[in-house]
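Final report, Chapter 2: Outcomes

The project's central promise was a pipeline that accepts a single protein chain and returns its three-dimensional structure in a standardized token representation, suitable for archiving and comparison. That pipeline is now operational. To close this chapter, we reproduce one record exactly as it appears in the project archive, with the input sequence first and the structure output second.
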Amino acid sequence: MPKDETKQEHKPRIKPIIEAADSLSLGISMVVAVVMGVGIGYLLRSLTGIGWLFWVGVGIGIAAAILNVYKAYSKQHKVFEELAKEPRYAIKKQLEEDSEDDEDYGAKGY
């Protein structure tokens, strides 16, 4: 078997594992972001003695977690947009074409 065929065989097998790890990493990154924010807040409070700086750090951690979710959403949205462009998944176009063919008879549909 040529080397190129071997690489192509293993590529589809590992893809689901990578996608699952990517999804898992979103949850882990959210927890890590909040924990780091709490750590930053604790460090700021310890260095300055100002108690409310702890909550600033917590806010930074929560904001970082929300940013991670937004980035993951944007990435998945791009993937789904590309998928929607494929002809076999273009159900939206088919539905629009069907609705243009139908005449509107009102709410009762006579």
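Archive annotation: The chain has a mean pLDDT of 78.
This record, like all others produced under the grant, will remain available to the consortium after the project formally closes.
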